[in-house]
Structure formats: C-alpha cells, structure tokens
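dumping this here so i dont lose it
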C-alpha cells in the first residue's frame, strides 16, 4: 500500500472509538472582508465561501503551544519578539505581529514534552489578504530536526526550500487562520517555514496554535495546563473550526 494512503489510514484507525469533540478555536475579529481577485499565486485554494466547520479531536486536546518557547532562523525580528507567536493574541493589528527577514525563514515551537498533535492553526498576517510562499509545517523529536522528522503540510510546489515537492495548495490569509490536520503525529517540536508573500519578501507571524494531548498525562491535568488568563483587550470570537 502506498505511503500516502497508509499514513492517513493509520491516523484514522488511531482515532477510531475515541471521544471526539470540536476544538474550541477562538478567532480574531476580521480586519477585511471578501477575497481579492487580483492575487496571483499558483495552485491557489478556492475560498470555502462560508465559515470553516468544526475540527474534531480526542477529548482533552488543548492548545499546547500557548506560552511555549519559540526560536527562529531570524533571532532578532525587525518587528516584535518571537514569544509573541504563542502569547494568545491573534488581533493582527499593528504591533501584534512578528516580522522576520526576507527569504526562507523558520520558527520552531518547543512544546516541552512529546504530544499527540491533531491540528496546527497558523495566522501569518490577516490585516490584508496575501499568499505566503513555500509554507511548510514539520514535527520532530529533537530541536535540530534530525530524529523522526514528519511533514504534515507543504505547498512548496517546486521544491524551492529543498524539503521536497509539496502537494498542498497555496491559500489566502484570513482571520480564520490556516488549519493543518496533523493526524495525531507524536512529537515535541513543531517547525513552520515560509518564503515571503505576494505582498512582501519578508515573513510574518501573528500566532500559532498547536492542538494536542501531552503523552502520559490525564485529560484532567491537560485541561488544568491550558487554563491561562487572556488579556481583556483581546477581541476574540469563539468559532468552531474544522480542516479544509
């Protein structure tokens, strides 16, 4: 059986019989409406035209990236600090995003321990519509990404990044963010890379959320872990989300 068929099948079997519930993703207020017609990007995903449906994951799945350590290929961003990428603020307005240098850049989130990861939600920049190039999401057991590296999303259609030809589609940034189905991959480190956008050669991040369950941890403990205060100034709207 082909690997492309076997992996999704194994992921589905691993979830069979579990108590699946919608992940409660809080979305920021949209900063623009509609999808522009003049964006030129190859292999562009068609807009869904309605709110994304709910994404189901095993009960107890949390945003394990909240407040976690972030490192990057550009350790001194032109705008913002790397720790803003996991601070819970998805507003996307001026002062609420991180700008990395032009060209291919990456960030790595340390979850602190191995997790079963079900979804990654990415907000690069949603103040205006744009398409980021060569977006790749990988997971590994070590910070250098040598051991058990797994790619869960790759829209680098011409292998510019040198990590293989991706089959995923390019997409327009919106307040919903991009939800990537991680299919229960077990890993401690999550790395995201990009290579500029249709609007700028620089790279940006507003927020990244990683939904999963820590291994060898009870559901009750996992829920306690995710109870962290959110600033009252953040304008968030709770919307159920599901993969594209």
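and the seq i came up w/
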């Amino acid at each position: 059986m082909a690997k492309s068929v076997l992996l999704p099948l194994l992921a589905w079997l691993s979830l069979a019989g579990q108590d699946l519930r919608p992940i409660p993703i809080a979305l920021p207020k949209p900063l623009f409406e509609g999808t522009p017609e003049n964006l030129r990007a190859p292999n562009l995903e068609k807009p869904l035209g309605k709110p994304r449906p709910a994404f189901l994951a095993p009960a107890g799945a949390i945003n394990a990236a909240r407040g976690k350590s972030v490192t990057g290929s550009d350790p001194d961003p032109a705008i913002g600090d790397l720790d803003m990428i996991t601070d819970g603020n998805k507003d996307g307005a001026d002062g609420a995003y991180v700008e990395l240098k032009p060209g291919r850049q990456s960030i790595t989130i340390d979850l602190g321990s191995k997790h079963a990861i079900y979804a990654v939600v990415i907000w690069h920049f949603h103040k205006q519509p744009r398409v980021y190039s060569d977006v790749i999401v990988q997971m590994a057991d070590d910070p250098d990404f040598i051991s058990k590296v797994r790619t869960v999303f790759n829209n680098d259609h011409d292998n510019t990044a040198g990590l293989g030809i991706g089959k995923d589609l390019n997409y327009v940034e919106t307040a919903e963010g991009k939800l990537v189905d991680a299919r229960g991959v077990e890993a401690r480190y999550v790395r995201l890379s990009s290579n500029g956008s249709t609007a700028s050669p620089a790279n940006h991040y507003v927020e990244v959320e990683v939904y999963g369950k820590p291994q060898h941890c009870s559901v009750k403990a996992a829920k306690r872990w995710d109870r962290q205060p959110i600033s009252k100034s953040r304008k968030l709207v709770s919307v159920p989300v599901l993969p594209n």
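The first helix runs from residue 3 to 15.
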